[in-house]
Amino acid sequence: MSELKGACIFGQSGGPTSVINASAYGVIATALKNPSITRVLGAEHGIKGVLNDRLFDMGQEDPAELELLKYTPSSALGSCRYKMADPDVDDTDYKRILEIFKKYDVRYFFYNGGNDSMDTCNKISKYMQKVGYECRVMGVPKTIDNDLFGTDHCPGFASAAKYIATSCMEVYQDARVYDTGMVCIIEIMGRHAGWLAGAAALATAYGAGPDLVYLPEVDFDMDQFLADVERIYKEKGNCMVAVSEGIHYADGSFVSEAKTSATDGFGHAQLGGLASLLAQVVKEKTGAKVRGIELSLLQRCGAHLASETDIEEAVMSGKAAVENAVNGITDKMVGFERSYEDGQYVCKTKLLPLTDVANTEKKVPIEWINVAHNGVEKPFIDYVLPLIQGEPKLPKEDSLPRFAKLKKVLVK
Fold first, then answer.
1. 157 with 145: CB under 8 angstroms?
2. Where are the domains of the chain?
3. Which residue, 409, 303, 305, 405, is CA-closest to 68?
4. Which fold has domain 6-144+304-360+391-401?
5. What are the per-10-residue average pLDDT scores of the chain (412 residues)?
6. Pick the CATH number of 157-300 from 3.40.630.30, 3.40.50.1100, 3.30.70.100, 3.40.50.460
7. pTM
8. Catalytic choice (93, 116, 145, 147)
9. Is 342 noted as a catalytic residue in this protein?
10. How far is CA 205 from the centre of its chain?
């Protein structure tokens, strides 16, 4: 195999997480040291930065600031939700990307994101092959939803799961202060996959979490939900519920759909307001004091509760993407494979074809959901627990987080 020399572009896409910048560090730091990569460019707002010729020279950054990316939440280079057209229908964007790649002699493209981002990767790679431009394309996984196909888990999920479980344990303490009783309904992200809502059950496993957990993998029955809540409230004087934003009725319609008709750039319904909707229904049915809590954006980027394991694996995924690309691999996404050695959790990387990952979702196995469809079983807990382990030593400044401050020097 002949050595391929040229610049690389790294971009971030989709929703931010606590560790997507750790993956960025893995890519950037590894690429800067590799002799096959002549220049490391960062795309402003993902693929939009390529289309708009807004690229940062990552070699101009202070190494100490790059190191801080490991502990900096959100997407440091900016993100986007931009759906690439089918190149056989409209190749305008692809011609522009090719123009930019040629302008900067880009031979490596690394894109960090979820399902839709892997679709973007796949389309770009296929187009470059079609026009005969040699460029190795690698997907770097990212999604708190944990729904990427083929990988044991995804960077970002564990830290969000840890935040959710911890928040539930804290709400559990708060909700039991008064003798008047309360029903708490906590809304958690997850459109079609219930990994995050299921993570709330970690709190229950340790004695301070939701009594009921509802995931989108099974149909939601409002009457049964109300009966479950009423039964537990009468038994305990309190009831805590965790619900995925994507729970739906048997006809497929989202329970929260009546609250909004908005969609994102990929046509996905923008869900929200479920907790307040269910709180109103429960209040009307039971007369109890009810509190609806939407974790919303807080669960995505809670770096103060990040999993050290998650950070380390995010860096590992970025590093693996570069190393494999330089060694001749293309059209792949880095995935994770779990094993146990002497009873200890071990994670290794593997490679998955982009065509297999793009627009395919991994859901919670039905056998991990209880028969009443209002909780999860022990295998779910056993799956998540190893992922949330470890507390990183976060850099602080006057007892506040010290996040990376990049110069973002545009290339000319």
1. yes
2. 6-144+304-360+391-401, 157-300
3. 405
4. Rossmann fold (3.40.50)
5. 91 97 99 99 99 99 99 98 94 98 99 94 97 98 97 99 99 93 97 97 98 98 98 96 98 80 55 88 95 96 98 99 98 98 97 92 98 98 99 97 99 91
6. 3.40.50.460
7. 0.95
8. 145
9. no
10. 24
